[in-house]
Amino acid sequence: MEIWLNPACSKCRTAVSEVEASGKEYVVRRYLEQPPTVAELEDVLARLGLEPWDIARTGDAKKLGVTLPAKDAEHRHTWLEAMVDQPRLIQRPIITASDGTTVVGRDPDSLARVIDAG
Fold it and tell me: Which family, according to UniProt (predicted)?
């Protein structure tokens, strides 16, 4: 299991605690220090069945001085590039189980689903 996290985030700390309590093995990726590539984001989005804007922290864009484009196919790559350049835009935590199940683990149901898939 891999957890993309920001250690300052309470949702991330909760996710790590839940995974640890389950006894599942996991690795941590501090995605602010080691941002994903466009290809890695594409892979995660495919597993999530979402678009980049679905996992973006749009409220943080203004704080970061980022102007986000329209939410459409034409601008999809621009979204991906913005998220790689400013990884704080990526919602957290993103957790991928060994079977490929991937969730944005911000709620108990999502955490349970990925831990069960573990």
Answer: Belongs to the ArsC family.
Mean of the per-residue pLDDT values for the chain?
95
What residue spans define the domains of the chain? 1-31+92-118, 36-91
The phi, psi pair for 86, rounded to 5°, reads: -130, 80
- 12 classed as catalytic: no
Q: Which one from 3, 4, 9, 55 is the annotated catalytic residue?
A: 9
Give CA–CA dist 100/113, Å, rounded.
Answer: 12
Phi, psi (5° rounding) for residue 99? -85, 5
Spell 76-107 as b/e; 16+ CB within 10 A means b: beebbebbbebbbbbbbbbbbbeeebbbbbbe
Radius of gyration of the chain (CA): 14
Strands 2-5 and 27-30: parallel
